[in-house]
Write a structure and sequence with these properties.
homodimer, 260 residues, alpha/beta, Rossmann fold, seven-stranded parallel beta sheet, two-stranded parallel sheet, 7 helices, globular
Chain lengths: 260, 260
């Protein structure tokens, strides 16, 4: 943990927005996105942050972007669960390899990688659902299980985790992979048990990434969900390794999303 | 198990040679390779096998090659542990996705995927070696552990396993991933404890792939090594799921490779 800027790739996306809304004033940021991010779309606290336009699949762009950075929060990639293979192969797999390789080479201390629940979506078999989405069910994934992606996007995220493992083992880069659940603002997804069981509030998202930026770790895979009473992802490892202490719980809302 | 031909991709490589030498006469083969395989390099039993020249990264080529096939043994890819990222991304990751996707779409029953010990090479930490290569050490990898690749080639093989998992879960393709050890003909690698602990003889290699072609399974990750007294990979799952019954043991040879 230093005062060096944190590079946020894919800063213009939804996860980027949740992070900057919540902890925009807690760090110096360098914002990288393929598209220009207009000042009006940024919270006031980061309105003057350095902005870089470029693609994470281009090593030269990433080399320039990591200069002087001690932490990279790597969100960039095609975020669509239904994205075609060609896109996730390039933007997610190759992009993540480029970011990790360049970060390791440049002596960046840690990379926080936005992985996804889709890396393990196929554990939700017909035999287990919908019971696993309910409070009485004790099935838990904890990050030690092998990937079982539910789509090619999930395949690409699992591959990104393995790339992170490689750069940790071979070059000492600290890497934490956050399997982000269902991120929504204000209230959990409406009338969607599954989404409520893996809800991640904006507030908890920002706090979790703050912990990922500040904590010391080697290589970790954690789940990024709120403190939901109904859940099938364990948050124990995020608590232990990162000091994650989520405040929200989808059980504080009715199934239709209204507060209890 | 039917009498349909078995498609062997990367048939001209070293693993292909071990398989065809040992079980060339046990199946009908269709041999795919990027380069022409000269008849003289093929064992007599497959001298008349159908040969296809083409690249597994080309869907049209693979579509043509899987016609009428019930099992694909997928060996094709860049086999070099030190291969650069660009090559393994294309030839191994994208190539394996193409093979699995086309096989699933065409109704092929099972794909046998040549994975590698390099997918887990970084478990061999300084603290564990060289003790883990010796008979007294009880450390075992069994295929349930997360990948820890020792190089980008290993990253690509781990990604191939996850791609297999995805096509199994989503489309019912039977997939077995064989983490091949150190394949050498005649005797174990010379003066190389590590290679002896993960030795796979040609005979056991052919038998293991024969079991992969004949057995019924859903999704499996197994280690492909001989019955070595010194080992750190478990072969229990290969025995149980496939009926693998290896005959060779590197302990039957001196450290210098000569028979005891």
């Amino acid at each position: 943990m230093t005062d060096d800027p944190v590079l946020l790739t894919g800063a213009g996306g939804r996860v980027g927005r949740a992070i900057l809304d919540g902890i925009g004033d807690a760090h110096e940021w360098r914002l990288l996105d393929r598209e220009p991010i207009s000042r009006s779309r940024l919270p006031e606290s980061v309105a003057d942050a350095e902005r870089v336009i470029g693609d994470v699949t281009k090593p030269a762009t990433v080399r320039e972007a990591v200069r002087g950075v001690s932490t990279v929060v790597h969100l960039a990639g095609d975020p669509r669960p239904e994205a075609p293979w060609e896109s996730v192969l390039t933007n997610n797999v190759d992009g993540t390899q480029t970011v990790m390789a360049v970060a390791a080479e440049a002596g960046v201390g840690s990379v926080v990688f936005a992985s996804s629940n889709h890396a393990v979506g196929a554990y939700e078999t017909e035999e287990r659902t919908p019971e696993m989405y309910r409070a009485s069910d004790e099935f838990r994934l904890d990050g030690t299980e092998l990937p079982r992606p539910s789509n090619l996007y999930g395949v690409s995220k699992a591959a990104g985790e393995t790339i992170g493992r490689y750069y940790h083992d071979s070059q000492g880069l600290s890497v934490v992979c956050v399997r982000i659940g269902n991120l929504t603002q204000g209230h959990p997804p409406r009338n969607y048990e599954r989404g409520q069981a893996m809800w991640l509030s904006y507030r908890d998202c920002a706090h979790l990434f703050d912990r990922c930026i500040r904590a010391d770790y080697d290589f970790e895979i954690v789940y990024g969900i709120s403190n939901n009473e109904r859940r099938y992802y364990s948050i124990e490892r995020a608590r232990e390794a990162l000091g994650y202490d989520p405040q929200d719980d989808s059980a504080e809302f009715h199934l239709d999303g209204s507060p209890r």
